[in-house]
Amino acid sequence: MTDEPTTLFIEIEDLLFPQRALDVYERCMYYHFVRHTHLIGRESRMFPLPALRTALGISEDRARKTIRSLEKKGCIELQRSRKGHLVKVFTPEQMGISAADEEGTTVDIESIDFFSNRTYVEPLLAREDGRCFYCLASLTAETCVLDHVSAQVDGGGNHYKNIVAACHDCNSRKQGTPAEDHLRDLYRRSLLSEPEFTDRLRQLEALRMGRLVPHV
Predict the structure, then answer these.
(1) Domain assignments of the chain as residue spans, ordered by start
(2) Which numeric CATH code is attached to 5-99?
């Protein structure tokens, strides 16, 4: 167990999340696990799926998929039983994640293809806080579509400044339409409030300026 909670949370945010590419659901569940284990001096606890569903406000199916993905990424160890999942929670230190690993990994994010093969779906979805970049509908890695803000026919590339996580409806309706026009259409159809519309335009500008960098 990490002695200082502050140090633990810094390691989680700065090292674990980016290095293991945890999505929004995985991050919430991992924090929930840490809260009920390491922060009270324990390393493991029983977590029934219905209780996780209620605590995190997600479906039981989503809870099941998320807990399995955390296991695959080495964040937890599971022992399944009729009473639920006995979850042993590993800290970044116990996983062997360190600042040295972070410093030794150099990624040229400008050269990454964020569109092909959906390799970077989860980092993009995490950047969008688990929502459609345009209409703010909730998304998962399974339901989201990768969308070119500027269409490929207009010279739009596959870099992080031009690829966003979107819902199927926005992807279908937008197609080659300029992103600003698509946002205006959402506003006219009352799918975005005025504050949301203004915020989406600001986020669009921030995206193009390279200020919305996903953790990879």
Answers:
(1) 5-99, 109-208
(2) 1.10.10.10
Q: How far apart are CA 169 and CA 182, in angstroms?
A: 11
CATH topology of domain 109-208: DNA Binding (I), subunit A (1.10.30)
Residue 29 has pLDDT above 60, yes or no: yes
* Selection from 66, 72, 44 nearest residue 53 by Cα: 66
- Rounded to an integer, what distance in angstroms lies between the CA atom of residue 79 and that of residue 88? 8
**pTM of the full predicted structure?**
0.54
Decide if pLDDT at 106 tops 70: no
